[in-house]
Amino acid sequence: MWISYNEIEKLDGLKSLVKLEKLYIGNNLIAKIDELNNLTGLTELKDVVFKGNPFALVNPTLYDSKPSDKDPAEIYPEIQKRLPYVEIIDGNTV
Q1: Is the pTM of this model over 0.85?
Q2: How many CB atoms lie within 10 A of CB 44?
C-alpha cells in the first residue's frame, strides 16, 4: 500500500489490514513513534517506508518531535522493537 504524501498523522485505521505486506507511508505527518504500536498486529508486514515523517527525524530520546540533523537510520532499532517481523525499512534490509 502506497499512501505517502497524504498528511497522515495517525495509523489506527490500518489495524485491520492483517494481510498487508508492504506499507509505504513516507513524507506524512506522523509525529510520534508510538503510532507504530497500531501496526503490531500486522505480522505479514515485511517492507515499510517511514522516511520523511517527523518521528523519523527526532532526537535520541524519541519523545521530542523537533527535527534534527541525525541520520534517519538511527531510528531503525526503535522501529524494529515495535515491528520485529519487518525486514526492510526505508529500502534498507535490517
Answers
A1: no
A2: 12
pLDDT in tens, 27-74: 999 999 999 999 999 999 999 999 999 988 745 444 444 555 456 667
CATH fold for domain 12-93? 3.80.10
- Contact status, residue 20 vs residue 42, Cβ threshold 8 Å: yes
Cα gap 79→57, rounded to integer Å: 13
Q: What is the largest CA-CA distance in the chain?
A: 35
Can you give the residue ranges of every domain in the chain? 12-93
CA 77 to chain centre: 11
